[in-house]
Amino acid sequence: xxxxxxxxxxxxxxxxxxxxxxxxxxxxxxxxxxxxxxxxxxxxxxxxxxxxxxxxxxxxxxxxxxxxxxxxxxxxxxxxxxxxxxxxxxxxxxxxxxxxxxxxxxxxxxxxxxxxxxxxxxxxxxxxxxxxxxxxxxxxxxxxxxxxxxxxxxxxxxxxxxxxxxxxxxxxxxxxxxxxxxxxxxxxxxxxxxxxxxxxxxxxxxxxxxxxxxxx
Length: 216
Known about the structure:
The chain contains six helices and seven strands; from the N terminus they run H-H-H-H-E-E-E-E-E-E-H-E-H. The chain is an alpha/beta fold.
C-alpha cells in the first residue's frame, strides 16, 4: 500500500497547476443566497412553532373544564395559564369592540368582565346573527391565557382594539377565548410538526453546504 501511495503522490503533484492555484477564488453568489435562504427559513419556522406552543400544549388537555365560578373578582394566577375553564360573568358594554378576521364570516366581540378582574372575554358572533341583535352570554367555557402570551393568532389584538377606537388593553390583562375547547386547537399539532420539518431540512442543508470539500 505504501508503494501505491508513493506512485500516486508524484502523479497527483504533477496534476497541480500553479497558475490555476494562483487565480482568485470564484464568486459564488448562488451559494450565499442559498445559505441565507436556509438560515431565514429555519429561523422563521422555529419562531412560528414557538409562537404556537400554547395552542399545541392546550390540545393535549383532557378532563372537564376547571370551574372558576364568578369571574368578576377573580385574580388569575400562573397556574391558570392556558387552561380550559368555565366561569360566569357579566360583560361591560362600554369599551367593548367587535372585529372580524380575514376570510372568516363570523365576527367576534371583546369585552371586559364586570368587577375588578383583569379578564377580557372574546365571544363569537355567528355570521347568521346580525351583530346589532347579538346578546352576549353570561357564562363561558374556553381557554384562559394572558394577553401577552396569547400566541400568534392574537398578536395583533391590541392593534385591532386601537383601530376599533377602544381603550388599550391594560398590562397584565387576561383573555378568555369562549368556545375554544382543547380539541379545537388540534390543528396546531400537524402545523408545528411541519414547521419543525422545514427547520430540520434547512439545518441539514446548511450543514451539507458548509462542510469542506474533501480532496480526492
